[in-house]
């Protein structure tokens, strides 16, 4: 049985800017509630003591069922738990993180814990994730946009070099060779930047937090559609749900999605279709990335996730493969306790499936 030193706990709470509470779950009232709880919820603590329901009324409507299930989980688990949810006010939202554990004394059940206002940190993290996701997409867009003009410059320089070589003008021949080399070097530079950024995801532990998957995926597709690639491919997102909440490392998981979309772009002809879809089931969420591109040859399918050299293919416009992307995709999905697979037919297209537990 867990013992609680109530006097020590209350003394800590009286001095803390974070919220401290002891809630008698059996009687549905607070044994202790410090002033900081009132500051975070922007309520009078005495009113909350009288009517604990006021706290629940401030919880964002989209998060109420989440909060209720958290209480149930904590009571059943009998271990400390950490949860994050939102509070809704007339003109703003707040994010709060609750660390709570259950104390059972005979027939009486208590929930004891602390509350931290994480609004500023959460907003900063969301902003950083958006910047990081858009940076990765921008790198992919840049690689695709530069491939064509640099490739044409390289081809033109090569053609000119053949003609100039007949004249014996060494200076001109060397200049054209320099142009060829610089075009190739810059293409490799952009691709190496993309590969290096994605490779980082395989060596850093994930840190999952509750996130709206629909919003995240819709934002990725929106960014692609605003780019030149969005005008060359029909890229869209679909989902029957307005919100799907999951515990994710958003930054790393969006790199998975970005890499799958990028691969679809490489192997889908101009004006082809690429569709990102998310659907929620009872105990899982299924995300698919589908295209109507050239498909994956059957002899390459078995080793696709194993980073085998023979599975590497240039894209339809000569785009290079990083050589390790699919292996990292699988690793990140598995770090989320999920699984990934695909179906593909030559000339019809490819669909990747990612199943994540709720």
Describe it:
There is one protein chain. This protein is an alpha+beta fold and 358 residues long. It has two domains: 6-117, PAS domain (Beta-Lactamase), CATH 3.30.450.20; 122-357, Histidine kinase-like ATPase, C-terminal domain (Heat Shock Protein 90). It has twelve helices and twelve strands. It has helices at residues 6-15, 35-41, 45-50, 53-57, 64-77, 119-164, 170-199, 213-226, 228-232, 250-266, 298-301, 325-335; strands spanning 19-24, 29-33, 81-88, 93-105, 108-117, 209-212, 234-238, 245-248, 273-280, 284-291, 339-345, 349-357. It has a five-stranded antiparallel sheet with strand order 2-1-5-4-3, sandwiched between helices. The longest helix has 46 residues, at 119-164. The radius of gyration is 27 Å and the shape is elongated. The chain starts with 5 loop residues before the first helix and ends with a strand.
């Amino acid at each position: 049985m867990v013992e609680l030193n109530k006097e020590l706990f209350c003394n800590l709470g009286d001095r803390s800017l974070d919220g401290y509470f002891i809630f008698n779950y059996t009687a549905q009232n607070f044994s202790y509630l410090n002033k900081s709880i009132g500051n975070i919820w922007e309520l009078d603590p005495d009113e909350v003591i009288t009517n604990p329901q006021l706290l629940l009324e401030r919880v964002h409507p989209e998060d109420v069922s989440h909060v209720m299930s958290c209480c149930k989980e904590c009571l059943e688990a009998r271990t400390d738990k950490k949860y994050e949810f939102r509070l809704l006010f007339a003109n703003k939202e707040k994010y709060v993180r609750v660390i709570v554990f259950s104390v059972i004394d005979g027939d009486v059940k208590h929930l004891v814990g602390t509350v931290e206002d994480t609004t500023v940190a959460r907003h900063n993290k969301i902003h950083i994730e958006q910047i990081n996701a858009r940076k990765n997409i921008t790198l992919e867009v840049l690689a695709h946009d530069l491939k064509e003009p640099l490739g044409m410059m390289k081809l033109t320089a090569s053609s000119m070099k053949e003609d100039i070589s007949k004249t014996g003008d060494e200076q001109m021949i060397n200049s054209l060779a320099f142009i060829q080399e610089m075009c190739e070097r810059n293409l490799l530079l952009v691709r190496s930047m993309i590969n290096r950024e994605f490779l980082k995801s395989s060596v850093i532990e994930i840190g999952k937090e509750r996130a709206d998957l629909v919003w995240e995926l819709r934002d990725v597709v929106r960014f692609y559609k605003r780019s030149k690639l969005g005008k060359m491919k029909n890229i869209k997102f679909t989902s029957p749900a307005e919100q799907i909440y999951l515990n994710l490392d958003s930054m790393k998981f969006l790199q998975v999605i970005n890499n799958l979309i990028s691969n679809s772009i490489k192997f889908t002809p101009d004006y082809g279709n690429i569709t990102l879809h998310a659907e929620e089931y009872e105990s899982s969420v299924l995300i698919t990335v589908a295209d109507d591109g050239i498909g994956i040859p059957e002899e390459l399918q078995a080793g696709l996730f194993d980073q085998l050299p023979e599975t590497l293919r240039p894209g339809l416009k000569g785009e290079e493969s990083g050589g390790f992307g699919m292996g990292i995709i699988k690793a990140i999905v598995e770090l989320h306790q999920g699984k990934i697979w695909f179906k593909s037919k030559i000339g019809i297209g490819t669909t990747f499936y990612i199943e994540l537990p709720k």
